[in-house]
């Protein structure tokens, strides 16, 4: 009997410690966002390949969205299958499987970073809840790309000229926004856009100013409208819940502290600067990143700012609220709604 009891205790002890041992022994397989952009190069990659091994003693291997070539929510689903441990991806890419996430970044919702930060902090608990429910992952970080502006191969003067145009939207809420303006929203991955603009598959495309600059969109565009019609295109960092639990509380707490101090805070700090630098580099400079493209920068009118807000209230917010449950609408109203003074019905 004593021998059986001892064996039972050993089995229980192994079960409790196996997860921690696994996390310490294996490499964390990390997928970063787009490797051509500064968020990956300057923040995600150094954090996971230098900071985490040094501070937590965890081995890591790093790849990116472009290298794994998995579209939409597929890369998130791979975590539940044990293929990856950590994934950084654009929230808009996964809203088909988790529509509550789309409430974070509605077009014209937060036109400056100060308000965007308040929106993110208010909605973070809601996002964490639905990411765990829909993908069984832990939310680690939320970081904005530069403001999502409009690149165009055709001459436009403002939002009124988008009617009849084919526009690559950065997400389905942006597609809803341009549709309300009489345009047609087209779904294309980030890497497919330059060729689509060049061949006339689309007339315009929405992405971050410096993101578009870094990816060569200036070569296939002639005009830039710097109104943030696509919001901020937040990148969410997530970890498999199995991997998260295997870390143990001490490492969990230290990892979250490191993410806040070494990843989120510095990345947020440069976003506003990169928005301005992207516009300057796409126009006539000065450009700290290299060549300028000489695109015509279209002045943003007060009338268009007002029009964008009206489209948000009359079209985008109602369309989103119809795609989610009454519970999600209630949670949005109690968080983001209070921050921006809007009520979704």
From TrEMBL:
SUPFAM superfamilies: Periplasmic binding protein-like II. One of its GO terms (biological process) is transmembrane transport. InterPro entries: DctP_fam, TRAP_DctP_sf. The keyword Signal applies. The keyword Transport applies. Pfam families: DctP. Keywords: Signal, Transport. Belongs to the bacterial solute-binding protein 7 family. This is C4-dicarboxylate ABC transporter substrate-binding protein.
